[in-house]
Amino acid sequence: MTTRALPVIGSERSAPTAPFLGLSALWIQITGTWCNLECRHCINASGPRAPWLRPLDGATVRRALAEAETVGVKEIYFTGGEPFMHGEILPLLERALEVAPTTVLTNGTLIGPEQADALAAMAARAPYSLEIRVSLDDTDRALNDRVRGEGAWAKAVEAVRLMRERGLLPIVTATEITRDEHGAESGMYERFRDFLHEQGVDRPRVKIMPVFGLGRQPASLEPPLTEDDLEGFDRSVLQCANARVVTSTGVYACPILAGLDGARLSTGSLAESFVAAPLYHPACVTCRRTGMTCRNS
Amino acid sequence: MPEQLGEYRRIAVFGGVYNNWLALEATLADARRRDVEAVFCLGDMGGFGPHPDRVFPLLRQGGVLALQGNYDESLASGRADCGCGYTDPRDNHYAAISYRYTFGGTSAENKTWLGALPRHRRLKLGPHRVLMCHGSPRVINEFLWESATPNGLLRRLMDRAEADVMLCTHTGIKWHRALPDARHAVNVGVIGRPENDGRPNVWYTVLTAGPDLTVEFVPVAYDHEALACEMEREGLPAEFAETIRTGWWTTCLENLPARERAGGKY
To answer: Which CATH code for domain A21-218+240-275?
Structure first.
């Protein structure tokens, strides 16, 4: 990749920043925004037609993995889009697992018996943990499919079953998009945990994420963070302090904002992105307020 | 700067006492029989078990050289929680019970003692430069699990610390990795609760200097039934006593990576 001067546009010029403390989490946006689903809350409006962020080629991914290894990365994440639409996903996961524990974020709809076999074999021989995060927004089929599309629930639940049978422990990842449908008293963790128990999962793993006002959701109207908002706040806990996302258009500060000009820190190497990240976007308010991370825990 | 200590030939190191005064007694007695020159604790004296103040006289009389863990830091500074960073409300529920109980049962004098502990220690084990920490050299509550700690990260942490041997704890499950460049990373385990393998014993570590380093994990059997009964009498959750009796973790499972989680029952 060649290096070009970065455009500095709009409010990110004067935004407060998060310091860069070293690369802990490397994110690979392997399929860009190419996905077989078109979820109505998708943070980067992924879908099956003309992805606005192109998939990555295998060579770029391998270069990023090698560079991350030299700086002592702690964990690697593959996301998209839907990573299992990438023709090289399995060999690239295998390569990543030589470097660090690796997680793949999937909607589960493309994981059949063959893929589940391959993932279980890979997990067994890898030096580090392979984590599979399966997105499911509701334990109720109709509520889930209203968000994720007809048939998504059944395929994701089947993927969880196939993996469970092979000794894998997928992390079911939900957003709070349907929370209001369950009344004020509903405990999401409990509901998902009970549901997974009913599915025969004896070691249920659940991760809950907030809904962000970007992508296919209405834009957040919250004003961006100011220095005053961050007074006394430990910015090192923000994921942009130690994560970077490699995409087909450059390296970005966090998975939520990957592909957005204001969050682009490098158009070349990973190392060039090791600079302070501007906290310019309303999504940064959500991170600051909730303490959320896109990492597994 | 980390405190600089002397040179040793053979040491015992443990982490995570978690109020388990019976296991601490048994560990110190075992270590004395093994000809060690010094005993080190990598922090987290409180949480989980009964009667928080009982471990402190044992640590002091035993001459244990202790580090501060995240739990110790929280207790000493009056934090509202243990600092383990859970998001799952079930984990937070049990962590909060444990923390409230321990906070209430730890004397002001002992909290002050915890607050004065160093966060790192350096020493020489024969030719090896050793760095001791609680979670990781960079973050007190960073989890370094065996299946989630890559060699590249260990090299980076040890390069920065100018160490040949890094000793940590915090996760509750021991491991040892000899890097291809002859450096060593050791998670010394904890003596406060068993390590999620269906056995009630706990573990500590004996390290012996030589041309290469010898790392020996030592199982410690203790009267775990007596401890479980004390926990019940103190009104601590039945899930905690179950862990002590069975060796399976029942709570605070959120941070376990896939491989470590697969090794447990829950």
So the answer is: 3.20.20.70
| Ordered alpha helix ranges (H), chain B | 21-32, 55-61, 70-77, 89-105, 108-115, 151-161, 224-233, 238-246, 258-262
Domains with residue ranges and CATH for chain B:
3-262 (3.60.21.10)
Q: How many CB atoms lie within 10 A of CB B57?
A: 11
pTM: 0.95
pLDDT in tens, chain A (297 residues): 444 444 444 456 689 999 999 999 999 999 999 999 999 999 999 999 999 999 999 999 999 999 999 999 999 999 999 999 999 999 999 999 999 999 999 999 999 999 999 999 999 999 999 999 999 999 999 999 999 999 999 999 999 999 999 999 999 999 999 988 998 666 899 999 999 999 999 999 999 999 999 999 999 999 999 999 999 999 999 999 999 999 999 999 999 999 999 999 999 899 999 999 999 999 999 999 988 899 998
Residues of A with CB under 8 A from a CB of B: 22, 69-75, 99-101, 123, 128-131, 167-169, 187, 189-190, 193, 202-203, 205-208, 296-297
What pairing do the DSSP bridges indicate for beta strands B214-220 and B202-208? antiparallel
Chosen from A176, A189, A292 to mutate, greatest number of chain B CBs within 10 A: A189
Chain B CB contacts of A73 under 8 Å are 150, 152-153
Best residue in B147, B173, B175, B177 to probe A by mutation, most A CBs within 10 Å? B147
Joined tokens for residue B79 = 């934090």
- Chain A with chain B: Cβ pairs closer than 8 A: 75
Contact A37, A51 (CB under 8 A): no
The ipTM value here is 0.94
Closest by CA position to A266, among listed A254, A249, A279? A249
Cα A76 from Cα A98, distance rounded (Å): 11
